[in-house]
Amino acid sequence: MSHLANLGMYDGGDLTRANDELWAIIAEHLRARGIADVPAALTRGPLEDIWNERLLFGQTCGYPFISRLAGTLQIVGTPVYDWPGCEGATHRSFIVVAAASPFRRLEDLLGRHAVINDPESNSGRNLFGDALASVGARAPFFHEVSVSGSHARSLRDVAEHSADVAAIDNVSYAHFLRAHPTLKDAIRILHETRPSPALPFVTASQHHASTIFDAVCEALNDARTEGARRVLRLVGIEPLERQAYEITREFSARADEVFGPRP
After folding, report:
1. 246 within 8 A of 66, measured Cβ to Cβ
2. pLDDT score for 262
3. I need a labelling partner for 168 at 20 to 30 A (CA). Which of 153, 174, 190, 203 fits?
4. The CATH fold of domain 4-82+197-246
5. Nearest to 27 by CA among 200, 224, 206
């Protein structure tokens, strides 16, 4: 059974080349540590086809990991990104609205149209709902909640006035605005959520996560990954444990108060 590797959580555009370059060096360090069947290239495709027992190295959203993947996958470590909104090995969501919209407070969103990227998303749904619950919002708070399928589509829905508000992972937000600078004039940040552990690097449960962690550390200190790290703004990795992601269950429960139970 051949292994898989994937870095699909932040990918596409110039990130594709950066991820390929980063993986080539990680793979080299994994092989040097005696790990067999290291994939020569990243696998791209539906993440549900990759988050399984064949995964040697990948990345997942924190809530699906803790709610249903932790029996199959284990944490290697948590990345540290150098983007606004990141503090150490954390990220957060930016709640965004159209630049010309009248909304100034979260309470102003009552009865409006929200868009989320995925019902399981910690950044697109859970942190969004947690922030709203903190100001007393309760279901049914929105007139309509639609599912876009991606943070990129959610952001464009808001920019194009197809929806009133969305919550975007701050790392994704930074990459989107860097790639599409005209979006800066179309949207604005209404609110920044509280932090959550960043999207973890993971491996299947049968692998030696500590060995993979050491190989990734070596790769991130390897001068040959400097260009890729600069594009990704990936500055390190921290050894967070599974328990750190239990807080995403709290975010999810609070989001249920605003959006109603997840289907």
Report:
1. yes
2. 80
3. 203
4. D-Maltodextrin-Binding Protein; domain 2 (3.40.190)
5. 224
